[in-house]
Amino acid sequence: MSERKDIALTINGADYEVSVDPRWTLADVIRDHCGQTGTHLGCEHGICGACTVLVDDVPMRSCLMFGVQADGKKIRTVEGLADGEEYHPLQKAFMENHALQCGYCTPGFLMLATGILEAEPDISDEDLNDVLSSNLCRCTGYANIVKAVRAARDEMKAAG
Amino acid sequence: MDDMRYEAPDSQDSAISMLAEAGGSGKVLAGGTDVLVQLHAELIEPDVIVDIKSIPGTQDISETDGSYTFGAAVPGMVLMGHEGFSSTWPGVIDGVALIGSIQVKGRASVGGNLCNASPAADSVPAMIAAGAICNIVGPGGSREAPVEDIVTGPGKTSLADGEFILSFTLPARPPHSGDAYLRLTPRTEMDIAVVGSGVNITLDDDGTCTAARVALGAVAPTPLLVADAADALIGSKVDETALAKMGDACSAACNPISDKRGTKDYRIKTASVIAQRAAEIALERAREN
């Protein structure tokens, strides 16, 4: 066995202390050792974006980061998006615009879009297309995902 | 492999001794976007991963008399967001902007892009064209080397065991200077260059080219600095004739492979076209400042 390292991180505001093997990715730690399985793993080599989470509010691929590197970091995952029973505007927009079919890529798209809309609330349609090209969806087709994120952007802006 | 250790030393000296102690079985980690993929694919099996991001200097961007130095582990998104650097070296930013998606660039660094030693790395031709120097530290002390001297073949570098790049220094920009990087890919996003070209030029007040550097990626086992291509521009007004001559020199320098993204002949032909288009963008930028 490898030498374990003890780390402390927060996921959606909750504190976790984990003794991690150096080989574990952040995705492994979030899913297997903190029980937050909303974050999905697709390709596991940085292409598909399904495992996108926010690390200190910046979108990252949790398969491309070691868990040990998340020591002291603030992680946000799809489980933290809704405010109690109230869905996040992005979640609502995904439902209203039929932006998911099988739903496998959805947590990654939601966290990517959350990170971007928080950092750039006025992002243009064109820049949004560029950002959303970071992640793969193999069944919905991208048109409805783009539509949903645009709708959420407009609603979040209107809500201030 | 099961015994792999992870270390994040906070000084360059401890990083050097960890790497030196590991011999060839230590792996430097910057952003990790290549290292983690290679680990999963079992292409590498290091005994120790040395994360250099806690070492002073690896995460900083600074400017002295117009010359920029930035840390080898500065994430691409941070470099792109640095107004001073990105307005001074838009061509380097062209290259950095093409390294994967935004989540990848949130971690991936120019140091890692270079040391991963892919012939197709997008930031490397632009850094070579910029005349960037690597500030290398290692068991034998510190040394400097131009970026074009680092990659010696696919996946191979000239860095000795225990050595790593701490930061890069780019020269101060004379007036009327501009740089650009362009690449050709089958898809627009998340793909690997078939041909990439970085061009950096300086003009005099009359618009005559006084200095130029032209670099190519993905057309040989290593990124190339093409002196003949630069010579075709120097002394000219960067007109059609000079650009065509530069393009021919680029094609002549190519030694590519054929793969699923493009044949050898296709790469040789398009190297000329991409380099000329990059030079036109660099020219426009040089005229603007």
Describe this structure in words.
The complex is a heterodimer of chains A (160) and B (289). Chain A is an alpha+beta fold and 160 residues long. Chain A has five helices and five strands; from the N terminus they run E-E-H-E-E-E-H-H-H-H. Chain A has helices at 26-33, 89-96, 106-119, 125-132, 142-158; strands at residues 5-11, 14-20, 52-55, 58-61, 74-76. Chain A has a five-stranded mixed beta sheet with strand order 2-1-5-3-4, with helices on both faces. Chain A is globular and about 50 Å long. The N and C termini of chain A lie far apart (51 Å). The mean pLDDT of chain A is 95. Chain B has 289 residues and is an alpha+beta fold. Chain B has helices at residues 12-22, 35-40, 76-80, 83-88, 90-96, 102-105, 110-115, 123-130, 227-233, 240-253, 264-288; strands spanning 5-7, 26-29, 48-51, 61-64, 67-71, 133-138, 141-146, 151-153, 156-157, 164-170, 177-184, 195-203, 209-217, 224-225. In chain B, the strands form four sheets. Chain B has a five-stranded antiparallel beta sheet with strand order 4-5-10-6-7. Chain B has a four-stranded antiparallel beta sheet with strand order 11-12-13-14, with helices on both faces. In chain B, strands 1-3-2 form a three-stranded parallel beta sheet, with helices on one face.
- Assembly state: heterodimer
- Report the biggest beta sheet of chain B as strand number plus sense, adding barrel if it closes: 5 strands, antiparallel
CATH fold name of the largest domain in chain A: Ubiquitin-like (UB roll)
Q: What's the alpha carbon Rg of chain A, rounded to whole Å?
A: 16 Å
Write the layout of secondary structure elements.
The complex is a heterodimer of chains A (160) and B (289).
Chain A: E1 5-11, E2 14-20, H1 26-33, E3 52-55, E4 58-61, E5 74-76, H2 89-96, H3 106-119, H4 125-132, H5 142-158
Parallel strand pairs in A: 1-5
Antiparallel strand pairs in A: 1-2, 3-4, 3-5
Chain B: E1 5-7, H1 12-22, E2 26-29, H2 35-40, E3 48-51, E4 61-64, E5 67-71, H3 76-80, H4 83-88, H5 90-96, H6 102-105, H7 110-115, H8 123-130, E6 133-138, E7 141-146, E8 151-153, E9 156-157, E10 164-170, E11 177-184, E12 195-203, E13 209-217, E14 224-225, H9 227-233, H10 240-253, H11 264-288
Parallel strand pairs in B: 1-3, 2-3
Antiparallel strand pairs in B: 4-5, 5-10, 6-7, 6-10, 8-9, 11-12, 12-13, 13-14
Helix pairs in contact in B: 5-8, 9-10, 10-11
